[in-house]
Specification:
Elements (H helix, E strand, L loop, with lengths): L8 H12 L4 H8 L3 H8 L7 H11 L32 H9 L3 H21 L2
């Protein structure tokens, strides 16, 4: 693991989607309400994203936030099969999860909240 370079999937995906949409960083900045410098730093992995910044960029590019988290598609993601009945039940670990979240920095908590919101939306689409 030593010597491995950390990949900037999120920033790279934002750049890819932006360029496929035919937008410059400045145009995306204007549409999203963020600065061009901020967009540049996100795309180059020099700045961490926030939930709010991803929401603004997602809206400006008209793509779901999940698209920013896609990894290398040459390696298929494992499919996890769950029983639908698991959703909607009270999680016995709710207090443990809350305690752990309180120990994390706000930007990391925001990341997990964004992922949980995406999971809820995906679950809504799966139900008949």
């Amino acid at each position: 693991m030593l010597g491995m370079k950390k990949r900037n999937f999120t920033g790279g995906n934002i750049r890819k989607i932006r360029t496929e949409a035919g937008l410059t960083q400045e145009e995306l900045a204007l549409k999203s309400g963020l600065s061009q410098g901020y967009i540049n730093q996100l795309e180059n992995g020099k700045r961490k994203f926030t939930q709010k910044s991803l929401e603004l960029i997602s809206k400006a590019l008209t793509v779901p936030i999940i698209e920013f988290f896609r990894g290398d598609e040459t390696f298929p993601m494992p499919v996890v099969k769950e029983e639908e009945a698991e959703y909607g039940k009270k999680c016995p670990q709710t207090k443990d999860i809350a305690a752990l979240l309180k120990k994390l920095p706000p930007h990391i908590v925001g990341h997990y909240i964004a992922l949980l919101k995406m999971e809820v939306e995906l679950n809504k689409k799966r139900k008949p």
